[in-house]
Specification:
Structural class: alpha+beta
Number of strands: 8
Shape: elongated
CATH superfamily: Domain of unknown function DUF5300
CATH architecture: Sandwich
Oligomer: single chain
Radius of gyration: 20 Å
CATH class: Mainly Beta
Helix content: 10-25%
């Protein structure tokens, strides 16, 4: 491949590679795990700007979703298990948050959060 062709290809592709990281939209990856002994049913996660649900999450089950936080407010979880319904305010989110949040659901309707957000 000629030097001129390599140079022209690098001029075309280098801005594209640099721009991919620069123009990336902020968002959170929500990773969730069931560390309780019960199957979680009708898990609903609400956050400023939307919500998502999971029909069933068995003991030891895991999942993840990418979300875009469009306002300020609480991330909330609502689900059912053998003890009944649990409604939890997990953590406060802010518009533009990005990174990873790990939510670990535990026995008795308790949860823990491991916060890997990149604060601006």
């Amino acid at each position: 491949m000629s030097i001129l062709r390599r140079l022209s290809l690098s001029i075309v592709f280098l801005p594209m590679l640099v721009g991919c990281g620069y123009f990336r939209q902020p968002g959170l990856t929500i990773e969730f795990a069931n560390h309780s002994a019960d199957t979680m049913r009708n898990l609903e996660i609400d956050f400023p700007g939307g919500s998502f649900g999971v029909a069933d999450l068995p003991p030891g089950g895991r999942g993840s979703r990418w979300i875009k936080v469009t306002g300020n407010g609480a991330l909330k979880a609502d689900y059912f298990d053998s003890a009944g319904e649990h409604r939890l305010d997990a953590i406060n989110l802010a518009r533009g948050d990005s990174g990873i949040l790990e939510i670990v659901f535990q026995t008795g309707g308790h949860l823990s959060i491991i916060d890997h957000r990149q604060h601006r």
